[in-house]
Write a structure and sequence with these properties.
The protein has about 170 residues and is an alpha+beta fold. The chain has seven helices and four strands. A two-stranded antiparallel sheet has the order 1-2.
C-alpha cells in the first residue's frame, strides 16, 4: 500500500482558468466507475482543492495484485527451494530470500547489534508494484555469489551460476 502525504503549498494560487483545466483533466480523463464512485471521486478532489496553505493530507492507495504474477513468483521460490541443499524448512528459506532482497526491517538486537525482520509478501498486504520490486530484488539476490554458495555449498562457483540460471530461465528471468 502506497502512503502519500500531500501539502497545500503556501503562496501558490490557482486562477479560475487553471482550476477549470485541472477539473477537466481530473474528472473527464479519469473518473469513478459508476455513480457512487464518481461522487466519491469528486468529493475527494474537492477536499484536496479546499486544503488551506500548509495543511497536510495523507492518501493511501492500493493496486490489486495480478494473480498470475503472484503464482509465478511463488512457483519460482518453490523451484529454487526444491533444488537447493541448505534449507529444510520453506519458511526459513523464504525469510532468507526476503532479507537478502532487502525486504525487511532492521531492529536493535539484545546485545547491541541489529537483526532483520522479514516483511510480508502476503497477497492482500503487498500491492502489485511493490511485489514486482520485491521479485526483481529477490531474483537479483539469488544470482549473487553469496546466495549460490549458501544454496549449493559443494558446487563450484561456475556450477552454482549454472544451477540458478537453469531454474530462473524456466521462469523467463
Amino acid at each position: 500500500m502506497a502512503e502519500i502525504q500531500l501539502v497545500r503549498m503556501p503562496g501558490v494560487e490557482l486562477s479560475e482558468a487553471d482550476r477549470l483545466v485541472m477539473r477537466r483533466g481530473i474528472f473527464e480523463h479519469i473518473d469513478g466507475i459508476g455513480e457512487s464512485n464518481q461522487k466519491s471521486w469528486r468529493r475527494w478532489w474537492n477536499r484536496v482543492l479546499r486544503l488551506e496553505p500548509g495543511e497536510v493530507m495523507e492518501v493511501r492507495t492500493h493496486q490489486e495484485r495480478l494473480g498470475w504474477y503472484h503464482r509465478k513468483h511463488m512457483a519460482l521460490e518453490q523451484a529454487v527451494f526444491q533444488a537447493q541443499e541448505r534449507f529444510d524448512v520453506f519458511k526459513g528459506f523464504r525469510d532468507w530470500i526476503k532479507v537478502g532482497a532487502g525486504h525487511c526491517d532492521w531492529y536493535p538486537g539484545p546485545k547491541g547489534g541489529v537483526f532483520p525482520v522479514p516483511k510480508t509478501i502476503s497477497y492482500s498486504k503487498l500491492e502489485q508494484a511493490d511485489m514486482e520490486r520485491f521479485h526483481d530484488e529477490a531474483v537479483a539476490f539469488l544470482r549473487t555469489a553469496h546466495a549460490g554458495k549458501t544454496l549449493w555449498p559443494h558446487l563450484t562457483p561456475a556450477a552454482r551460476i549454472d544451477m540458478i540460471e537453469v531454474i530462473l530461465r524456466g521462469f523467463n528471468e
